[in-house]
Specification:
Radius of gyration of chain B: 25 Å
Distance between the termini of chain B: 62 Å
Structural class of chain A: mainly alpha
Strand content of chain B: 5-15%
Number of strands of chain A: 0
Number of strands of chain B: 6
Oligomer: heterodimer
Helix content of chain A: over 70%
Shape of chain A: elongated
Strand order of the largest sheet of chain B: 1-2
Strand content of chain A: under 5%
Structural class of chain B: mainly alpha
Number of domains of chain B: 2
Distance between the termini of chain A: 58 Å
Chain lengths: 72, 511
């Protein structure tokens, strides 16, 4: 069964035509998204700026109770 | 208060989110609809054993694969944006969205990923029925994934089944089934998925019409059209039905959205539906100007759609902003007073907890809880801020409904001419068929605008405005990412169009 499953994927990938181009696009896209965009442009704001959930909750509560005064 | 907040950052964050969502939305409905269309085609192949249906199925399946590959993971960018640009919101809804999105991820992984390989690689390697089963599982899995996303979105439009935890500043789920079975979420799901079926049908109509215009693969195109025009017609009718349900729920839980959709400033009983109209762009809530330069109204229909009663009162923007005692409608001004009490109660609670004053904390918590239903209104500076941008919503709604009606007629005409075997002689109609896919995209995006812009200024209806949902970031950072996405998305769209066009021009012969 495992051999059949392996063969399905192996032969499938080997005989791809349009799929090869599509996989290249998928990998380039995922690289741009996760290795560039996520790392350099989309840090998780609360995870990056605060160490504990208590600090994060306090920050959000501050924004809810004094929204204008808490600008960075 | 709101003036001091960096609105430019919020505007760029909203524009970035809109760009990402609208781009994502080019691919998703095509995936949802084409997956079922491929399943229909393959079912006919398995039933009849006719190899031409197999060839047909494989052609559309290839186009489905191209669309899936280009569109896959574009939704993840939305999650990046939640964490970076909308961190207050992300923190507050994490408990609510965690479960549905986790289920979505698991379903997407196990159903789609497992059966996807069999669907594409399994021709001639597994039995016909096993292959067909895989194709159906991909279709069902894709559409089940959409359930959970739309449950999360439905909750934002109508937040139920939760409590606010003032210690953690989070909405916490207390009733999973209330969230999942919310009428708003259900009507949202059925409307969106049926619209996706319609949109995918238009894609097949467009490609098949192009084949007929070029006098290529005529039998293939006609077979495809016979199935998708039937499917598209049923989907169109269902879209109209579910759209009515959707509007009915909006009337109950988001009356401001409905009033904006209709350009209705002063409530009426009975209220007519504006079939067509030219809005007065300088009209503002509370002024004496006419809302329309020109309008054609169908009497009583809005009352019927909103309340299922032709004589009922439908509130307008002015009733909702300034209140209407006769109709027992609390205005935004009064809600703002209560909202500010909720904000003050929350602030006092936080301060009392910090100082260890349990008595004061208890009093503050009571004040908060008494007014927490209006929390979001506490962040508004003036009542008119609760009104979304009416012209965009009014015209988007009419574009969506107008095109939806046109698609019903298009499918009917196509089916009639297919029946009479006259379709390939109608060059003008076929050109319209080719263009109909673009119109389908316009209708789809217009629907998204009505739903999402129509609920502004709320990130979570009545509880959290977008100005408070945002992160404390500079506008410049968000502005840069907007243009980066614009370039990335444009490049991906060009890649998709090129690959898709090449594959279509090769036709069903080039497997």
């Amino acid at each position: 069964m495992f051999k059949n499953a392996f063969d399905l994927y192996y032969e499938g990938f080997r005989s791809m035509v349009v799929g090869r181009t599509l996989w290249k696009i998928i990998f380039i896209k995922l690289f741009i998204m996760f290795a560039i965009l996520k790392v350099f442009f989309f840090p998780n704001f609360l995870a990056t700026n605060f160490d504990t959930d208590a600090e994060r909750a306090d920050h959000v509560l501050s924004n809810l109770t004094q929204p204008a005064a808490d600008k960075h | 208060m709101i003036e001091q907040i960096d609105l430019t950052m919020v505007s760029w964050a909203r524009a970035t989110f809109a760009l990402t969502a609208m781009y994502h939305w080019i691919f998703v409905p095509l995936t949802l609809g084409l997956s079922f269309i491929c399943a229909f085609f393959e079912s006919i192949y398995v039933k009849t054993g006719d190899e031409q249906w197999k060839k047909l199925t494989r052609f559309w399946m290839t186009l489905f694969g191209i669309n899936f590959a280009i569109g896959v993971a574009t939704g993840i960018i939305l999650e990046f944006e939640f964490g970076t640009n909308w961190s207050n919101y992300s923190w507050m809804v994490g408990d609510i969205f965690g479960v549905p999105l986790a289920i979505e991820g698991l379903l997407a992984f196990f159903l789609e990923a497992t059966f996807f390989a069999v669907m594409f690689f399994g021709w001639n390697r597994v039995s016909k029925r096993a292959h067909l089963f895989s194709t159906w599982m991909v279709a069902i899995g894709s559409n089940l994934s959409a359930v959970w996303i739309l449950v999360a979105n439905g909750w934002m439009q109508h937040p139920i089944g939760m409590e606010f935890n003032p210690d953690l500043a989070r909405f916490e789920m207390v009733d999973f089934w209330a969230i999942v079975s919310s009428p708003v979420a259900i009507s949202h799901f059925v409307h969106v998925t049926s619209a996706a079926f319609l949109y995918a049908s238009l894609f097949v109509v467009a490609v098949s019409s192009w084949f007929l215009l070029k006098k290529r693969h005529i039998k293939f195109a006609k077979r495809s059209l016979t199935v998708v025009c039937t499917f598209g017609l049923l989907a169109s009718l269902f879209v109209a039905y579910t759209g009515d349900e959707h509007a009915y729920h909006a009337a109950n839980v988001q009356p401001m959205k409905l009033a904006a959709m209709e350009g209705l400033y002063d409530g009426e009983a009975p209220a007519g539906l504006v079939a067509a109209g030219l809005l007065n762009f300088s009209k503002k809530p509370g002024d004496d100007q006419d809302a329309f330069i020109f309008e054609v109204k169908i009497p009583m229909v809005l009352s019927l759609l909103a309340n299922r009663d032709i004589n009922s009162f439908v509130p307008g923007i002015n009733d909702l902003v300034y209140g209407n005692d006769a109709e027992n409608i609390m205005g935004v001004e009064e809600k703002m007073v209560r909202g500010k009490l909720a904000v003050a109660g929350l602030g006092d609670y936080k301060a009392a907890k910090k100082s260890g004053d349990q008595l004061a904390a208890g009093k503050a918590l009571t004040l908060f809880e008494e007014n927490s239903d209006y929390l979001g209104y506490g962040y508004l500076d003036y009542a008119e801020q609760a009104v979304p941008y009416v012209p965009l919503i009014f015209y988007s709604f009419r574009v969506m409904v107008g095109l939806g009606t046109f698609f019903i007629l298009l499918f009917l005409v196509y089916l009639y001419l297919l029946y009479k075997d006259q379709l390939e002689k109608q060059a003008l109609l076929l050109k319209l068929g080719v263009g109909s896919f673009l119109l389908g995209l316009v209708a789809h995006e217009a629907g998204w605008i009505v739903t999402e812009v129509g609920r502004q200024p709320w990130a979570i209806q009545d509880l959290l405005p977008v100005t408070i949902a945002r992160s404390n970031l500079d506008a410049g950072t968000v502005e840069v990412t907007f243009f980066m996405f614009l370039i990335l998305f444009t490049a991906l769209l060009i890649a998709e169009l090129k690959i898709m066009a090449k594959q279509i021009s090769i036709g069903p012969e080039g497997d």
